[in-house]
Amino acid sequence: MARARAVKPKAPGLPKGARRTTPSPETLAALGADRLIGLILGETARNPGFKKLVTAALASLQGPDAVAAIVDRRLTALEGAQGYIDWQKRRAFAADLNATITVIVDELRPLDPAAALDRLRRFLAHADAVLNRVDDGNGAVQGVFERASAAFVAIVGGLPPEVAGRIATSLVSPFTDDPFGPLGILLSEMIPSIPADALAEIDAGLAEALARPEAGRSRSGHAAYRSAMRTQVLRLRQAIADRRGDPDAFIALESAIVPGGENRTAIARRLLAAGRARKALDWIRRPQDPRRRLATREDLIAGFDPRGPERERLLAEIEILDALGNSREAQALRWGCFERELDGPMLRSFLAKLPDFEDEEALQRALDHAEAFPEPHRALAFLIAWPDLHRAARLVTRRPDAWDGGLHYTILAPAADALAQDHPLAATVLYRRLIDGVFAHGRSAAYPHAARYLTELDGLAPRLEAGAIEPDADAYRAQLRREHGRKHAFWSLVRA
Questions:
Q1: What burial letters (b/e) apply to 155-166, b meaning 16+ CB within 10 Å?
Q2: By Cβ atoms counted within 10 A, which residue in 65, 124, 271, 398 is the most buried?
Q3: b/e string for 239-260 if b means 16 or more Cβ within 10 A?
Q4: Are 149 and 182 in contact (CB under 8 A)?
Q5: What is the pLDDT of residues 359-383, one digit of tens each?
């Protein structure tokens, strides 16, 4: 008779399937108070940051003043320090600063939000002085100040509206003194969430600061710097205009920032949202020298490619035309954009607006245009993404010498992978161009990719008809051996 195997009972309170060694409220409780106290004391002896957190937690039992005193001592030391922090000390310094913010947020804020805000503001006010004496090559210290800014905004967001408004108003002066400084940035981040009643007073303070002839001179007398500061103040006033739903104020400020080079798209969208489509159409169609327009955040993201901002302008114009009921002209713009750029989303929008039973014919016309597009790499990218793999394969095999695997590998590699299943000849053409591109441009870092492409070619070769491509698979590999046989770093990655 088989003996029953003893089953060790589970620790009480553990969830089903929980690991016994994973720290959790249940597993830690099982250790008991004495064992946990020993672990905590051991860590406080080794870790100064952890010791600061434990000390602050104990101080919180005495009330907010005790916690604030701990923070104040550290801030006073920080404000008086002058020594340089090199890269070897940077990690410990950043950890110490981070622990200070944790104490403010986790221990002081629940007891006294106003006191927590005072300490965060004091911490941020000395950001420049601290960063100027730190080798912050990896941005670790800068990240602590960004965390402090986010914490400040979050705390203000949880306060009564009238209190939040007063705090935001108190930041007008620091912002106008230095819009790029840490306290100035705070006000910019708070505008979307502060009470609407406080916006008028803030806007008035910003306008008054701009009117002062000495505005912006406290930090630099350089004209370019003062101009940049003025622009920041005007941009903040624009954000306030948006919050107040005042497109006319937004337009006036935009014209003050860059007369004659206004962001037509931004203006038109605000007019459209306000129900003023005719005026929006007038703005979106105003001629403009692009060199006179200031670069926006969207421009930076687009890498200053004129097609990015121009596409956004075109989308706004189409939306305005639809709002005015001019669907024919809107459709003409959609089709024109597709014809010029092979813009897939624009084509989908065009097809969706067509009457029933007309979309299929229009789609075939669009795909014919894409297949005959003069820029083959863009055409291939479109057909793969649409997708129409049959047309993509036909495009590849009709123009086998058009593909540049060195400059356009980001298009050819996914295209080859997509075509490999049902179109082995087209995939073979692309994989060969990719391998040739790696060697032609001397990209040794891409040898692992080239080795994978050669493996893919080995798998595709038996599926090709005899004579489908020249040279054949064996001859192509032999050619690679002849021309690149001494590239041992590549051949060591290739299966025999």
A1: bbeebeeeebbe
A2: 271
A3: bbbbbeebbebbbebbeebeee
A4: yes
A5: 999 999 999 999 999 999 999 999 9
pLDDT (tens digit per residue) in 278-322: 999 999 999 876 555 555 555 554 444 546 788 999 999 999 999
Q: Is there a contact between 429 and 380 (Cβ–Cβ < 8 Å)? A: no
Domain ranges of the chain: 36-158, 376-491
As a whole number of angstroms, the distance between CA 303 and CA 306 comes to: 9
Q: Which residues contact 216 (CB under 8 A, 6 or more apart)?
A: 176, 177, 225, 226, 229, 230
Helix (H, G, I), strand (E, B) or coil at 483: helix
Residue with tokens 């903040």: 236
- Is 376-491 a domain of CATH 3.30.70? no
Please report which confidence band the pLDDT of residue 434 belongs to, taking 50, 70 and 90 as the band edges: very high
To the nearest 10°, report the CA torsion of 340, 346, 350, 351. Answer: 110
**What residue type is 224 in one-letter code?**
A
Tokens of 383: 């057909």
CB atoms under 10 Å from CB of 35, counted, come to 11
**Residues in CB range of 302: below 8 A, 6 or more apart:** 308, 309
Q: Can you give the pLDDT at residue 2?
A: 46
Instruction: Kindly report, residue by residue over 196-250, the tens digit of the pLDDT.
Output: 888 988 999 999 988 876 554 445 557 777 888 889 999 999 999 999 999 999 9
Contact 434, 453 (CB under 8 A): yes
Quick count: other Cβ atoms within 10 Å of Cβ 139? 10
Judge contact between 292 and 260, C-beta under 8 A.
Answer: yes
